[in-house]
Amino acid sequence: MAKQFDPELSGTLGKNHKQATQKEGAPGYRGKCQIGGVVYWMSAWVKDGKHPDSGEPEKFFSISFDKADAEYQPKRAGRDADDRDPPPRQRGAPADFDNDDIPF
User: Where in the sequence is the domain holding 16, given as residue range(s)?
Assistant: First the structure.
């Protein structure tokens, strides 16, 4: 019997062959993955940097994830902060917070 494939915590990333016809800053690579049962679009850019230990020049991937709720919309590299959803904020302590257990 063949083993069934579990897509959880896996995905694919391939060359974006449409990059030349897209806006400047379009990702060089794109794909899909599944994390926590949710499917995400992945966008990746090849960047130049330095190795953290040796300081030698090296290339690396900068990767972003978007929920795959809608049709794929490539991101722009260096997009404005206003283009992003703000991170969720947690205000105050949770209702079940018991500060009697804090040792100070």
Answer: 10-70
